[in-house]
Every structure is written in structure tokens, then in C-alpha cells.
Amino acid sequence: MRTAAERGGYPWRVTDPGTHTEAEQEALLANEGFYRALGNSDMGAMEQVWARMARVTCLHPGWTLLTGREDVLESWRTILSNPNQPRIVGGGATVSVLGDTAVILCREVVSGSPLYATNVFVREEGSWRMTHHHSGPVMVPGTEA
Question: How far apart are CA 40 and CA 37, in angstroms?
Fold first, then answer.
């Protein structure tokens, strides 16, 4: 049986609103929008995800830190336009909200390699917008050197 991620689903989808505050639900949905844009190679949707007023930063695995909306979006343009870009599957999101800031931690799998991502959102004009994405490899238990 295939998992939701393998079927193209988003396993962190907010399915039980009773377990999260309204702000947490909204932030998780914004995070889901980010991964949907990524999975669909939808640059228009990716542009909508990122903050317009707040400072924006991004750290892709193996890249240097990108600062500024234009540089961050250009990196996503490059990634999304690459026909050989491996599929990224995510899941297991947890969220912490403090005021108008949300921090989401989630798993990613890229070409079978496990990564963890930290996604930071701020509320701009009533919507959660990403201000930071950092994804990197993690140690899998039992594989220590």
C-alpha cells in the first residue's frame, strides 16, 4: 500500500482542527501551500507563499544563505524549472505560534535521503507568509559512523 506522500498527498494536512489553534491551523495550511507549490513546480504559487514586507532568507542543502525576496525567488525559479529536479516529499509537521510568527518543523525526503526543514512564517495583511526556509540532511538512527 502506498503512503499519502507517495500518492502525491501531503501527510501533514490539517485533518483534526480540534488539536490546533486557529493560528496553528492557518500556519500549517500555509506550509502545505509551500510544499504544494514545490511539488507542482508552480512558480506563481511559490511567489504567493513568500513574504513581501518582512526580510526573507533561504538556505537550501549545500547552498550559501540567500537573503532578499528576489534572490530567494530566483533560487526557486532555478529549482522548479529543472526537469531533473528530484521529487520532494514532506511530512510530520509540528508548529509553534507566538503572536504573528509561526515556526514549523517537518521532514522532507529527496531522492530517498532524509532531510529536516525549518519553515518560518509571519502574518502579513492577515495571511501567513514564509520568511525563512532551511532544509538539510539529518542523521538516521542506526547509521552512525
Answer: 5
